[in-house]
Design brief:
Number of helices: 12
Number of strands: 10
CATH architecture of the largest domain: 2-Layer Sandwich
Radius of gyration: 29 Å
Largest sheet: 8 strands, mixed
Bound molecules: 3,4-dihydroxyphenylalanine
CATH topology of the largest domain: BirA Bifunctional Protein, domain 2
Shape: elongated
Number of domains: 2
Structural class: alpha+beta
Distance between the termini: 82 Å
Helix content: 40-55%
Strand content: 15-25%
């Protein structure tokens, strides 16, 4: 019978000294592949006497596990070495001065977020951020979206692998969980906006699996729908730079607000071109409403005492409208020519006093 110690030493040694990922894969095939040496021995087990089969089989399995482990360890090491090599060749010295005549650009998403913060900052809003990975409670349950709610299908969700207790984290499908976290950790009066990345299983000209939203939340004892309308009207007029921009609040439904509305801005589509602030047409840009009493309760706030409004909008969408960017996917192509065309100069910092970017 084959000396199993020798066999193990041979293949472990081969794995440990493999010089590349390809060489290592060749060794794996020779040892453990369909026609590999160890696999071949496994196949002979059936021909042995029962007693012999048991002890030889057990030992052979140990060899197989040891060789598999050695291959995995070497694979990880080779992978690390490959990354190290890449990092060494792609090293950038960030302290070097910029090349004369070459000025970097601020991405339109960053610029738009800065503009939104500048406008709401003037109105007394603070900024809050959550994390991209959320639990079911904050992304759904606390927002009055129970397990069987159709809104769960509306937002095609990326789920992370199941945890031992059966629960699953998600990539947040909206920025609304940040309003939950804010209400849980701070006392009213609250006046915050929450910009950030969001994720949905969706990809075409107008949808990207990763996109950005900004959430707004105001909670105190007196804020009503009139304040919501005034606040969003001021924001839209400042953001688009159109003083008499018309807004339409259309009744709608969101599980976390009651009543809920969608906001359209006035536009003109005649002649195949979209012009904001003119004509008699409408374009939807955001969702909003009065925070549902159940949501307040879920966050430990007394709905008899506190009330307020919330809103949410897509940042790419309003950036595309304001800056005439036709295709959503180009935002993430990292194409330098695109960035030179649509990007902003680093010193072009938006502020309401200094004038927003036009
Ligand atoms: N969370 C909604 C979405 O992703 C957007 C939204 C609508 C947020 C209404 C709100 C709101 O806070 O009141 O589609």
């Amino acid at each position: 019978m084959q000396n199993l110690t020798e066999l193990e030493t041979k293949w472990k040694g081969a794995a440990e000294t493999a010089g590349s990922v390809d060489a290592l894969e060749a060794i794996r095939v020779e040892a453990l592949g369909k026609k590999g040496e160890i696999t071949g021995l496994m196949k002979t087990l059936g021909t042995l006497a029962p007693e012999e089969r048991k002890s030889f089989g057990q030992q052979l399995n140990l060899v197989k596990d040891a060789v598999t482990a050695a291959i995995e360890t070497r694979k990880a090491a080779l992978g690390d070495a490959a990354i190290e090599a890449r990092l060494a060749t792609e090293k950038l010295d960030m302290t070097l001065p910029a090349r004369p005549g070459e000025v970097g650009r601020i991405h339109p998403i960053s610029q738009t977020i800065d503009e939104i913060i500048a406008i709401f900052g003037e109105m007394g809003f603070g900024v809050r951020e959550g994390s991209d990975i959320e639990d079911d409670f904050h992304n759904f349950e606390a927002l009055n979206i129970p397990k069987d709610h159709p809104a769960r299908q509306m937002q095609d969700t990326f789920y992370l692998p199941q945890k031992p207790d059966g629960s699953q984290m998600v990539l947040r499908t909206h920025t609304s969980p940040v309003q939950i976290r804010t209400m849980q950790s701070e006392q009213p009066p609250l006046r915050v906006i929450c910009p950030g990345r969001t994720y949905r299983v969706d990809s075409d000209m107008t949808h990207s699996p990763m996109f950005h939203q900004v959430e707004g939340l105001v909670i105190d004892e007196k804020t009503h729908m009139g304040h919501l309308k005034g606040c969003l009207q001021d924001f839209c007029r400042a953001f688009f730079g159109i003083d008499d921009l018309k807004l339409r609040f259309r009744p709608s439904y969101f599980p976390f607000t009651e009543p809920s509305a969608e906001v359209d801005i006035g536009c003109d589509r005649s002649g195949g071109e979209l012009k904001l602030g003119q004509g008699n047409d409408w374009l939807e840009i955001l969702g909003c409403g009065m925070v549902h009493p159940k949501v307040l309760k879920n966050c430990g706030l007394d709905p008899e005492k506190y009330q307020g409004f919330a809103f949410g909008m897509g940042i790419e969408r309003i950036a595309m409208l304001k800056y005439g960017i036709p295709d959503l996917r180009t935002f993430y192509d990292a194409d330098l020519r695109w960035l030179k065309h649509y990007g902003f100069l680093p010193l072009d910092v938006p502020s309401v006093v200094g004038g927003l970017t036009r």
